[in-house]
Design goal:
Shape: globular
Helix content: 40-55%
CATH class of the largest domain: Alpha Beta
Number of domains: 2
Distance between the termini: 30 Å
Strand order of the largest sheet: 8-7-6-9-10-11
Largest sheet: 6 strands, parallel
CATH architecture of the largest domain: 3-Layer(aba) Sandwich
Amino acid sequence: MLAIARALSAAGDHVHVVALNPAKLRIEPEPAAIEPATLEPIDINTSARLRPLMRAATSDLPLLVARFYSPRLDRRLRALIAGERFDIIHVESIFMLPYLHTIREVTKAPVVLRTQNTEHVIWQQLAADASRIRKLALSRIAASLKRFESEALSRVDAVVPISDDDAHAARDLGCRVPIHVLPGGLDVRRYSIDRSAEDPRAVYFLGSLNYLPNQQAVRWIAAELWPPLHAALPNVKVTIAGSAAPPALAATIRAAGIELREDVPDATAFARTRSIMIAPLFSGGGMRIKILEAMALGKTVIATPLAAEGLGAINGEDILITPDAQGFIAAIRRCVDDPLFARSIGDRGRSLVANNYDQNVLVRGLRAFYESLIARNARA
């Protein structure tokens, strides 16, 4: 999201970002973080239960979506959009669609939905691996999200998914509005390789630990990967880093003897001191921006097939792909024993990102798509 805002601003567009700032993950954004775009955070408590339950019960919103409705944000959007002419309203994720009615009331500008996942598919994947009672609950969540996504995709003027697979999923859900695939990207200039800082035996996993697919991955690391890895390669150190780890998950990590870093002030600085990133994801969709960031830093990425999906990376050249713990152990062993091999994977991964995922290049296509929507809207 930040990369898109920066790239559009750098291209000469006026960008005003209004963003929810959840109490559970609240930050104090620095003005320079998003320059030259304007960033306006709106506080919200997404952990509240009663109001979202009431809102979901009296509307067509799934409970997960209702959690992100803020009357304050609704009022601010109404005033901002009514008071200033915007050519495009860019809505990030289906969780911001509760504000669509208000947006429609105050502007005729095209509304573009950016989807970073096909949300209901994630919950279907989680349900498939759950116990019976949990499977039922997760399946109901998936069904409610599928209904909402199917309806939402026809209520906006265009959709910008993050991958071709998500574009096909949108069409399968009945989407008939224009689609432009915009891969996840980053400003490659902000990343550089520093081999002098790396520990070749340091392995890391990085991600938001309140995200269910990441929780699933971390539990797999603790139960399936770490015990045989530690037995086979006792000098290898694994660190799990991420925000908002539930207490039970944090206890699981520590009980396994794995280092947990819950408050990493600078993810890039953290990654620079490590050589290998692991991404054992078994559910989720879209594109893993953390993998792109690791590649941009020249790290060797070892991932499951699902985690590498949509990247266009070649196994054994830009990335190492394996489906199980024994494969991860073999890949880590080879990288530790042969640092030149590990560095070659990292170097080619960096080139892949620079050539295909630099946001300043990708945003040119997005701007052209926006301009076509604006022109069509003017003719209507």
